[in-house]
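Data deposition worksheet. Section B asks for the primary sequence of the deposited chain exactly as it was used as input, without tags or linkers unless they were present during the calculation. Section C holds the resulting structure in token form. Section D is free text for depositor observations; keep each observation to a single sentence. Incomplete worksheets are returned to the depositor.
Section A, Depositor: J.P.
Section B:
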Amino acid sequence: MRQIIVIGIGAGDPDHLTLQAVKAFARTDVFLLLDKNEQRQDLMRLRRRMIEEHARPGHRVVEVPDAERDRTTPAYTEAVEDWRRRRAELVGRLVAEELGPDGTGALLVWGDPSLYDSVTAVLDEVLTADPGAFRYEVVPGISSVSVLAAQHRTTLTRVGHPLRITTGRRLAEDGFGPGSEDTVVMLDGQAAFDRIDPEGVHIHYGAYLGAPDEILVSGPLDETAAEITRRRREARERKGWIMDTYLLRRTED
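Section C:
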């Protein structure tokens, strides 16, 4: 039976690859790379570098444009479901066309595949339509959340405090009122940290974590929000994209 390995490849540093990931690279026949867009070619080059360093001789690399999600519609849930359906069709076709009956393919996922990534949901959708298409396994990776804490030399949790992981969209909707627990924010395209009351809130911010052009800012939110907004805007204009996350912590708790 065909085998698919979902490999977490870390947040942006080639050294983030775990030994388990390196071993998975070495038993892969075909690497299936879903290309986001032309602006993110530096990310594709990083994936190719990892493959060149760790893949076995005779492997193949197949690169195809990824399905695009409609980010303009207010119907967020419906847009995500449509995007996953089209991704499932794409992945199912790739597996059928590019892998032999006993071949092993790999999908390379930034960070940890279990944290805010849709690849496993997509594979489950393929298997729902075609139960015998393949087997798959997941190799965990170093997430941007872990790298964020390490780079700022802090911990994600404090004694007696819960930790929430959410999105920028939910932070903008729910706010960060008094009594809020420590919160990691991901997938924030609109700088939602600039929409909350900064009084008594500390932020540990990171963009392009692990990469040579990494951005780190830490301090009281009321003193750092403007700097973070400026630096992420300049970086997005320069690179064409931004990949960031941050930890909000209420200091008086």
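Section D:
The mean pLDDT is 91.
The beta strands are 3-8, 30-35, 60-65, 104-109, 135-139, 163-167, 182-186, 201-207, 215-220, 244-250.
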